[in-house]
Amino acid sequence: MKNQQTFFRALLMLILIVGLVIPILAAETKGIVVNVYPEKNEFVVTENIRNLTLQVTPSTKLMINNREAKLFEMMPGDEATVVYEKQGPNLIASMVRCSRKIPLREQVTVPSRISP
């Protein structure tokens, strides 16, 4: 019984430590996409005054307007929320959510049929 209590205390401490460390490893930023470089697997987001160059990997999840997308589909001007980790000098994106203002289609009026 005492061993079981010790085990659960150790498990609780481990969960608390992991819960505190994980947010430190991942960061989030919101900004506007400035440039996209699919050939380099990179894109640039402006955050307030500074630009962040982020890299994507095969495991990066990229969404545009709640639809799964590829890096080459991102466009300058997209609003982006990026979750990333700093690995040395590189910023590696794990999740990218973009929203794009879609212009409304011009309304097409269909003439009504006039019977002779």
What does this 3D model show about the protein?
It is a single chain. By secondary structure, the protein is of the alpha+beta class. It has a domain at 26-99: Copper binding periplasmic protein CusF (OB fold (Dihydrolipoamide Acetyltransferase, E2P)). Helix content is 21%, strand content 42%. It has one helix and seven strands; from the N terminus they run H-E-E-E-E-E-E-E. It has one helix at residues 2-25, and strands at 26-37, 42-47, 50-55, 61-64, 67-68, 79-87, 90-99. It has a five-stranded mixed barrel with strand order 1-2-3-7-6. Strand 6 (79-87) and strand 7 form a beta hairpin. The chain is elongated and about 60 Å long. Residues 104-108 have low confidence and may be disordered.
Give the gist of this structure.
This protein is α+β, with helices and mostly antiparallel strands and 116 residues long. Helices cover 21% and strands 42% of the residues.
Helix and strand run: HEEEEEEE
Quote the beta fraction. Answer: 35-45%
Shape: elongated
Overall pLDDT metric: 83
**Full CATH superfamily name of one domain:** Copper binding periplasmic protein CusF
Radius of gyration: 23 Å
CATH topology of one domain: OB fold (Dihydrolipoamide Acetyltransferase, E2P)
Alpha-beta classification: alpha+beta
Number of helices: 1
Number of strands: 7
Low-confidence stretches: 104-108
End-to-end CA span: 94 Å
Give me the side-by-side strand order of the main sheet.
1-2-3-7-6
The proportion of residues forming helix, as a percent range, comes to 10-25%
CATH architecture name of one domain: Beta Barrel
The largest pleated sheet is described as:
5 strands, mixed, barrel
